[in-house]
Amino acid sequence: MRARVLIRPKEGILDPQGEAVVRALPALGFNGVSNVHVGRLVELDVEDESQLEAMCQKLLANPLVEDYEIQTVSS
Amino acid sequence: MRARVLIRPKEGILDPQGEAVVRALPALGFNGVSNVHVGRLVELDVEDESQLEAMCQKLLANPLVEDYEIQTVSS
Q1: Calpha distance B22→B53 (Å, rounded)
Q2: Which listed residue, of A70, B21, B58, B72, carries a Cα 20 to 30 Å from B48's Cα?
Q3: Local structure of residue A69 (DSSP, 8 states)
Q4: A48 and B32 in contact by Cβ < 8 A?
């Protein structure tokens, strides 16, 4: 099964990459962009879907400062 | 409008983070995982959806080595 994990900085946690994007866009001529967050995307094939939650907790995300969302991808 | 951009290393481009995950998982007791790719996730509010493609080309992704996929998120 193909799975996709979306990992985002938690609400209230500093997001320097998001800040950098917000500041850079107007200089490039893009306006009307706000609320930018930059996170990570992990895509993987797993045999046992039930392990995904534990993988996120132990390796893929840092649960102290990141939230994650697991999606299954139909292939 | 809330948009989500999924950015992945292009096919054939080295993905050291994905390799690291593949190697680390068995040591943590997770087996049957393959084909792991680590990319970036950008979520943003945009007023003008038609600008997203250009933003990806110019700032959010590096089109030489990365593919990107734009999704709209219903809020």
Answers
A1: 31
A2: A70
A3: E
A4: yes
A59 to B7: CB separation less than 8 angstroms, yes or no: no
Domain layout of chain A by residue ranges: 2-73
Residue range B2-73 in CATH 3.30.1280.10 = yes
Q: Is the ipTM here above 0.90?
A: yes
On average, the pLDDT of chain A sits at 95
The pLDDT-based confidence of A74 (bands split at 50, 70, 90) is confident
- Taking a C-beta distance cutoff of 8 angstroms, is the pair B8, B37 a contact? yes
Find tokens 């991808």 and name the residue. Answer: A73
Test B35 with A41 for CB contact under 8 angstroms. Answer: no
Q: pLDDT tens, B13-70?
A: 999 999 999 999 999 999 999 999 999 999 999 999 999 999 999 999 999 999 999 9
Provide the CA B73 distance to its chain's centre, in angstroms.
16
A44/B contact by beta carbon, under 8 A: yes
Q: What's the confidence (pLDDT) of residue A60?
A: 97
Do A54 and A5 form a contact (C-beta atoms < 8 A)?
Answer: no
Contacts of A1 in chain B (CB under 8 A): none
Is A75 a residue whose pLDDT tops 80?
no
